[in-house]
Design brief:
Elements (H helix, E strand, L loop, with lengths): L1 H15 L6 H8 L3 H4 L6 H29 L2 H18 L1 H8 L12 H20 L8 H21 L5 H20 L8
Amino acid sequence: MRERILDAALTVLQQEGPEGMSIRKIAERVNVSHMSLYSYFDNQAAIIKALRERGFEQMQALCDASLRRAQSGDALTQVRESLNQFIELSHTHPRLYQLAWRRWADDSSFRVNSQNLAKVLKHFSELIQLCVERGQCIEREPTLAAVMAFSIVNGTLILYHNVAPISQTDRAQLETETIEAAITYLTRSEQDGGD
């Protein structure tokens, strides 16, 4: 039943955004009384927290698979694919993406969980360390490089999803340039002159 409630909450979130979520709307989707939801979750904030956690668990599984592929294959390709996964998520589930990274109003249930963010950055750090060891990336401190590469892509996504809507053509171009900027940062030193 908890999973059904979370599935219903995700549907409401995707259709109406976090502002449109309510216990009653979720209960309608599950076809139960709104009071019965309180047997499974204390309140709406608990549902949002569980929904976020489930999303990050799925993301962690993708990260683990990516790291396994990087250990036996091309690590830089996995960096690129991991960065592209954030872009894909922002397209396929824009409101879930916003829920993962954005804070609404003063409601603490919408704050980014720093432990989840740390896990994502650890994943990128491990991939970058493999790239450095294999000579695919220049020597940089992997954690700082992970923060920078992640910020280049995720910061851009946050801006155009939340602040400055742009055309689909411009968005595709911006995404391509953003990924290339992150990869260039990881693979070229200032002495290279950007060649």
